[in-house]
Structures are given as structure tokens and as C-alpha cells.
Amino acid sequence: MRRISIFLYLPMLLGVSILSSPRLCRGEVDISGNLKLDKRFLITDSVRIADYPYHELNLKLKLNPSQNLSLYSSLKLRLWDQNLASSSADLIALSSNYPYELSLWEAYVDLYSFIFNELDLRIGKQRIAWGTADKLNPTDNLNPDDFSDPLNFGEKVPTEAVYATYYITDEYNLDVIWLPLFKPVLLPRGEFPLFGDEPTFPLPQGTNLTESADHLTFPDRKPENSMYAAKFSGTIMNLDFSLSYFRGYDDMPITNRLVVTPVDTVGNVKLDSYLGFPKLQAVGFDWAGELYSIGLWGEVTVFLPEEVKMEIEMPNPADPLNPIIQDTTILSDDPYVKFTLGGDYTFKNGIYINTQWMHGFFTERGKDKLEDYCLAGIEKKFMNDEIKLVLTGVLEIKDLEDIKENYGTAIIPEVSYAPTDNVNLSLGVFFLNGRLGTLFGTWKDQDQIYLKTAVNF
Amino acid sequence: MKKILGIGIVLFLPIILLGGTPAHQGLASGGDEILKKAENAINAPKDRTATMKLTLIDKDGDSKVRDIKIWQLGKEKRLIKFLSPADVKGVGFLVLSDNEMYLYMPAFKKIRRIASHVKNESFMGTDFSYNDIGKCQYTKDFTAEIKEETEKEYVLELIPLPKSDVDYTKLIMWVSKSNHIPSKVEYYNKKGTLLKVMKNENIEKVDGYWTPKKIIMEIIKTRHKTVMELIMVVHDTGLEDDIFTKRMLKRAE
Fold it and tell me: Can you say how many angstroms the Cα of residue A106 is from the centroid of all Cα atoms in its chain?
């Protein structure tokens, strides 16, 4: 039987105890949630249904047994529209035709005024959302990325943590976080070229790759491999700001060893890739304010990565007992900077615009490997806010000195309709294009129409 | 910073939010004096805690309901939590001053600062703007003249002060002689067109303060209106500054 982490066990135990003890249970259990349905039609060449989107049911429970105690948990059920059956034997399993995943997405306890009146504590599996920008947050590094839906940027997976906030004054506070266990990125199901063009290396002459496998190595489950973070936040002259520090691991694996092994005598070879998670430190600063009624925000993070060298081991035709070994630096320890600058404004006719400049996409890392993205969105509501039209455009710039040959574009028109409270229907299109080697260029076969339904309860 | 639409609505929203006036004030001779009395009436209680039902009604009579809870201290500080419906439940709104407002969206686990350009927009789909919800002082933006006087009411015309940057050319306000609670206000844009009308109804004494139990705000062009009904209210319970913080915005229930 798997051991349950104390960080999940504590909220669950407290929850059961409180629910079974009417004397303690001052408040009622608050149950809420939502159902999200998502269907995508890829429209490049012929129309077909994308396999990586999923439907989602979220069930949330909240309880406030006393003024200084709160419990929260959420269950997430994801259902993919994929057929996993590969033989008739698989057809006996519901999960082959309707693959699903159930997750205790969040489960935490809030202890307000813990020991000191100014100290709040949150213990358990939680989403820690940092940053002032609109979804494009380079300071938001404590939870791993959730790329399950690769076109829904900025999603994260909650992780176990102890989060302490000390309120120095009403305007200044210090957050200190301990994340005992490292958790990696969540990748999309199905085929999606998430990372754009990946680096390749030449196989020895006369060889033919017939098999490949990859192997993940996680940091040891030791206290010294825990992750830590701290943030100081405040408001000065109507400007909100925070200064943050994170010490942990990059949630995206990186290859640190490749082994090419002959599988026969006619040149067929097998490739084994070994991937690890480099150590990472990040120093961030974010702010939000306004100038002449225009909302403005910015985030910048200096990443201090661990150097990663990749060892390539290949067969040596001249001496089969002594393979050829090469070393190459795949991630430099040079610091690199990601940032987002943005602003928004609502005109008197109700048109809302939002624009952001982002340096360094979620999947990019390393000095000289970061691209620039300029996003602009325009939005207008009609019919008492029941209908909303949104047009979003993104310009990817891989090389500022030669934009003409190094750009990509994403255009996303969307109409949404809220026929009644708690229900929202949206219909939109992703048009993706770009030059060879750009991220959007790699995604150009992912043009798609989407139809989403969301119901809250 | 723009103090656009709704600055006038705020003349009366605070009556609900802070309670009414003790019913023993004398008559005033000048318009500004009456306006000042109305402002004092609006800001009479030290603090207030209330739950309200907001019914949004369109021109065809179709309606939607929102329930909110509100805490208020002094003239400026407010904390509002949406209790229903499900898609806005848990959304919080904190007003610390005229130009410092925050919105908490539980779905994103994030507090977001509200810039001035949003203040003129509909507050969560109602006919009240963020500015309406956020402000409760108006003598610094308007000067008033008595246009008419009846047995029970003064009719004031409010004109923006030169330094004010409100978007209205005028407000017409009906102020009760007995309690100085405005019963009706009309808002006119720069073309002189009537934009919206607010009415205070069912004015009763609660904890010694005259308090409208119902406020109706109607947008003339769309014929859409919001009816705000007071479900529960208590005054002067000793709310303190530490309620009106980002810390409480996230956790307030």
C-alpha cells in the first residue's frame, strides 16, 4: 500500500475528525464545483478531432469549523476522448474506451493567527499563485507546469507545501514556503510538439535507430532536496510589489546522458535517454500599479540554473569494448532572465484591451534560448454581459535582428455566451503559423476550432 | 484619476452601506448645505455589516439574483464578498481608498489590483459600477443648487466642480426634508441625456439610522435595472481596520 504523505493526511484527518464531531463543526460543509467540456477539431488539411483535450469535473469542499481554522479540498476528474484499446482484449475495460484520471487536486488546512496573531499557515497540497501579470508569470515557479492542455498556458499543478505568511503590517507581509517534495511537469496526452524543435545529434555512420526509451531520475527523497521559497510583499505610493526567491528544481526534465547500443550485427541500434531535473534558483520581482488610469504590471525573474552536461555514449566500430564517449554542455549555468511587461485599459464604450510583452516562454530555458512574444487582446461585451467577443493575437519573435525570417503568429477569435447564471459556452479558433524553427511554426498543424462548455454549481 | 460614471450613485449607495441619518436634523437654506447634510447622513454610522440580495432585471423582465455580504468602516473602507450564484461565489472586492481597490478571484487564487479604468465598468454584471460601490464622498466633486422645494423634499441640481473630472454634466437629486435621505437621483451625460436613475425605497430606521431597504438603479438606454434589497444589517459593531486588508479579502466569509 502506498504511504500517504503527512501533508495530505493531516487535512484529511482533520476533516474526518471535524465532520464526525458536531460539537466542533460550527459551519456547514460548503460543496461547489464545475463541469468543463472541451471539444477540439483540428482543421489543417482534413478535419479531425484532437486527442489531447479533456473534459473535467471539479468538486470542491470547504469547511470553516472555527474563526481560525479552515479546510479545503478539491477532487478533479479528467476524462479524455481517446481510444486506448489496441486489441479486442482491451475492449472489456471501460478505461480503454474512456480513459480518465481522478486526483485529489488540492487538500489543505488553513490555520489563521497561528501562535502569533499576525501569522497564517497553510499546510497541504496547494496551488501557490505568484505574480502580477495576466497568466504569463515568470515569478510563478513553485508549482509544476500543467501542460495537459498545451494551449491553455499558465496552468499549474498544486503541490504539497507548508506556507507561512507573516503580516508585518497591513501593507507588508513576508511569505516563507517549504516544499518537501519535488514534483515534475505534467505533459499532454497524445501528440503535441510542446517544446518546438528539439536538439538532435548524428548517429554513427551505417547505424539505424530501431528502438528508443527514456529514463527519468528524480531527486532523492531526502530533506536536503526539499525546495524553499520566500517572498516579501508591500505597497509603496500606490504601487504593489514583491521580491521573491526560490530554491528548488526545474520541473522540466533535461537529457543528461544518451546511450546508443547495437541490437544486432547489421547496424541496428537502440537509444536510451536518461533525463534529470536540474537544480534551479530564481530571484523575482513583480509590481502592479497604474498611470493615467491605465493598469500596468511587470514581472522579472533571474534564473540561476545548474549546469547540465550531456554524455553521449556510442558504439566504437574500431573497438567494440570501448565505446565512444562525448561530453557536451546542454544547459549552461549562465543566469538568464525572463520577464513580462503588460497593461490594460477599458475605453468608455466598454472595449477592453490587454497587451503584454513576454521574454521567455514557459517551455524555454537557458541564456540565448529565450524568445520574445507580444500578446494583444481586445474584448467587448454585449446584451447585459451575456455575449462576449474576444480577439487575441500573439506575435512570436525568435530573432529581433531578423524578424522577417524568425516570427510566428497565433490568432484566436472567440465568442462566448452565458445564457443563464453559472453556464458559459464558448466557440473559438486557434490559427497558428510561423517560420521554420519557431514555436508557432512547429505548431502550425495544430490549427483548431474549439467548443467549450462550463457549468458551475 | 477618472471618477467617471457612478460618482453620483455613490451619493446614495452609502446610505445603504453606511445607514441613514438620525431623524432630527434641521432644514438647510443653501444647496451645498443640504448636500453636506446628505453626506453626513450617509456617513453617520461608524461601521456596518450587511447582507444584500441583488436582482438584475432586463427589459423583458428576465432576472438573475446575486447575494453579497458587505463590511464597511468609515467613509471609504469596504469589503464585499459574493455568496451566490456559483460562478461568482467567493469573489471578493476590497476598497481601501478612492484609488486603491482589489479583486479576489478564488478560481485563480489571486488578488488583483483594480485600475481606475475599470471603475466605470459594471460591478459583476450589476448596474452599479466599481466606482459606485467604492466611493461615498461627493461634496468634493459637486456643488449644489436648490432648484425646487416642496412640502417634503428639496430638489437639488448638482454641478461638477471645476477640478472634478466626473463625466456627468449634472445630477438631479430629491432630498427628504425630514431625514435628508435622497429618494431619487438622475444622472445626465455631457450631451444632457438622462443616463440612469436611482431610487431609494422602504426607508426605515435601523439602529437609529434612517436606512433604505431597497435601492433601484436603472439604465435608461437598455432598460436594465438592479434592485438591491437589504436582508440583514447591523451598525456600529466595532469593525476595525484589520478587517479591510488583503489578508481578509482572501479569507472573509
Answer: 15
**CA B26 distance to own-chain centroid:** 24
Nearest to A293 among B85, B109, B117 (CB): B117
Residue located via cell numbers 518537501:
A180
Chain A residues in contact with chain B using a Cβ-Cβ cutoff of 8 Å: 27, 32, 34, 64, 70, 110, 112, 120, 127-129, 132, 165, 167, 170, 173, 235, 238, 240, 288-290, 293-296, 344-346, 348, 350, 384-385, 420-422, 424, 456-457
Q: Is A364 helix (H, G, I), strand (E, B) or coil?
A: coil
The distance from CA B200 to its chain's CA centroid, rounded to whole angstroms, is 11
Instruction: Report which of A307, A431, A435 is spatially closest to residue A371, judged by C-alpha positions.
Output: A435
Contact call for B117 and A345, based on CB within 8 A: yes
Rounded to a whole number of angstroms, the distance from the CA of A167 to the nearest CA of chain B is 8
Domain boundaries, chain B: 9-251
Chain B residues within 8 A of A36 when measuring between CB atoms: none
B9-251 in CATH: which number? 2.50.20.10
- Rounded to 5 degrees, what are φ and ψ at A19? -65, -30
Q: What's the whole-model pTM score?
A: 0.87
Checking DSSP bridges between strand A54-66 and strand A69-80, what pairing results, if any?
antiparallel
d(CA A273, CA A34): 40
Cross-chain residue pair A456–B222, CB shorter than 8 Å: no
pLDDT in tens, A321-345: 888 899 999 999 999 999 999 999 9
CA pair distance A145, A143, nearest whole angstrom = 7
C-alpha B31/C-alpha B138 separation (Å) is 13
For an interface test with A, give the residue of B62, B82, B87 to mutate (most A CBs within 10 A). B87
Distance from CA of A291 to the nearest CA of B (A): 9
Rounded distance between C-alpha atoms, residue A294 and residue B74, angstroms:
28
* B15 confidence band (pLDDT: 50, 70, 90): very low
Q: Are A260 and A267 in contact (CB under 8 A)?
A: no
Cβ distance of A240 and B118 shorter than 8 Å = no
Distance from CA of A173 to the nearest CA of B (A): 9
Q: Tens of pLDDT along B48-58?
A: 999 999 999 99
Q: What is the DSSP string of A143-165?
A: SPBB-SSTTSTT-B--EEEEEEE
Smallest CA–CA separation between A6 and chain B, in Å?
23
B219 by Cβ neighbours in 10 Å (0-12 / 13-18 / 19+) ranks as middle
